[in-house]
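A protein record in our archive is deliberately plain, so that people and models can read it alike. The tokens are whole numbers drawn from a learned vocabulary of local backbone shapes. For reference, a complete record is included directly beneath this paragraph.
>
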Amino acid sequence: MEQLGIVRKVNKNNALVEVRRISGCGGNCACCAAGCDAKSITVYLRNNIGAKEGDLVEIKASSKKVLKYTFIAYMIPFIMLIFGIGLGVSYFQSAGFENYEIYGFGVGMGLLAISYLLIKIIDRYLRKKGETILEMTRILN
């Protein structure tokens, strides 16, 4: 995945880069007239190419890392929610509770909250390890 960004600020080894987000339809809103507005975001990236303020840079992301982080962000909470609901419903039903579905849903929501704490721990670990999704590859101007 390749994108373009403009370097807005340069610190010692990092650069604040403004990247235009790509919409789900590809960003060509003139052809579909849907009027979606693809806003830009700013991210800190390691400045390993010596970019300066105002430079247009190419940014690449490895597909493998994108899929890895997507799995972490979406599938871990989903799996924990479904597992919690199933576990809670079966436990409270076998224990003879009348509203076992509601209690099971509560267990699922509890495990969902725990999954967000787990994601935070994973994110800190990956950040300490120095792993990033995006990296600047070259200066274009």
Summary: The chain has two domains: 2-61+132-139, 64-129. The first strand starts at residue 2 and ends at 10. The beta strands are 2-10, 14-20, 40-46, 56-61, 134-139. The chain has a mean pLDDT of 87.
